[in-house]
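Proteins fold reproducibly. Consider a sample protein:
=====
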Amino acid sequence: MDAELLARIAAALERLAPPPAPPPSLEGADAFVWHPPARLDPVPRVSRVEIGLLKGVDRQKDILLENTLRFARGLPANNAMLWGARGMGKSSLVKATHAEANAQHPGSLALIEIHREDIRTLPELLNILRAQARRCLVFCDDLSFEREDADYKALKSVLDGGIEGRPTNVLFYATSNRRHLMPRDMIENERSTAINPAEAVEEKVSLSDRFGLWIGFHNCDQDTFFAMVEGYAAAFSLPVTREELHKAAVEWSVTRGGRSGRVAWQFIQDMAGRLGVRVA
């Protein structure tokens, strides 16, 4: 058999069984979106708010920023769960602290978003990140689990347990409206029907124990709401007096049925549009 025929056979075999794709790269961007089984799509521009514009969450901001900066410097840090009232800036704070950490330590951290429905693939993502030199914040927004949902067990094992453990170059940040990530009736039903109620409840709530930081967010009062809209108005140079801004903000919050950081941002978007001011 001549060399040319052997080369043709080898080429045909390579087409039938191509070599494995190289592992995803964390170069060229500071943020990525995880798409299983093995794809990290870069995000050229993260949708975020500057950390200085996040009002009414000063203590939460200090805790998460300190933790993130330690991690960016290569020091030990904790997984963090941001829980509580909706619209109070939980996900905005995660993205803002990531940006601030990279501003102080350029290129130190990659932010990787994993969607709630992909949590079961978290072990595969961590295996990819384990081999990376860059430090990574894996972020899941609006994380929670429903009845008959076993994905929480996969999350428990990779956060703190297992033989390999969590990679030293990875932190996991999550946001949720629920403190224990489970519906209250799910936990209470376990307590009422289990042979050993304490063990059943422990199984459900122990997931939260995997997060070294629990950071609570609560509904804001009117003064805090005013501080939020004033901060945005000043940042975008809206041509409006303080009295006019407050009056319009109160009316907007009444029509929305509540006050929060999200409501403040939506109000500023509306007012800026009416005033002909771009805020992008």
Q: What stands out?
A: The chain has ten helices and seven strands.
